[in-house]
Amino acid sequence: MSADVVIWHDVECGAYDVDLGLWRDLAADAGGPVLDVGAGTGRVALDLARRGHDVIALDADPELIGECARRAAAAGLDVETVCADARDFALARDVALVIVPMQTVQLMGGADGRARFLRCAARCLRSGGLLAAAMADARDGQLDGLDAERPMPDIREIDGTVYASHPIRVRLEPGGVVIERIRETVAPDGRRSAEGNEIRLDDLDAETVAREAKPLGFRARPALEVPATDDYVGSEVVVLWRT
Hints:
Elements: H1 3-14, H2 20-30, E1 34-37, H3 43-50, E2 55-59, H4 62-74, E3 79-83, E4 95-100, H5 111-124, E5 125-135, H6 141-144, E6 154-158, E7 161-173, E8 176-186, E9 192-202, H7 206-213, E10 218-226, E11 235-242
């Protein structure tokens, strides 16, 4: 396993917990299995499993989902893990809730990728089930402010090495934005290294996702909100009911 993939995922995503209450509430109301799409190392999936929920964690990266499985086993949690692209997956059983935290739905490569994901989600969701996906506003608020007022870096120390991820700029592109970061490490002996990293978010809102999902038998419920903090952007959460 490449430690860097897991480490950087944890540095940039692992400390985020502002949204956990929302996913906990949805899981408690669902009354059945929960599919966590883009689960990574298990930030949300493990939290829900600790609360007694039946959780399936799905991620396309074998290293991340492998680490999720390892952490679940170490904690004595029964979490089913699936290594698959969110745009091309099938489950052996149906679920009552599909959740897509942390803007994963904006990483699917536009409308075609989202359509493929929505078809997969529709196939695995039981009638009356819910799909909930979080989206950041790619063109307003704190994201736009990166160029003028850079936020504090995400930092973690592991075995004496300091890992720091610095968001430095947002670059507008047709249909979305690219967030540029510098990933820096400082070894125990003081040696430093740095490399660039980019992530592209599709420009997307709840109304658009609801419209795209309607032909597949989804109906929109009122959108929910994950509030912004000093360190993190807020999210709009589209909630779709499977008829």
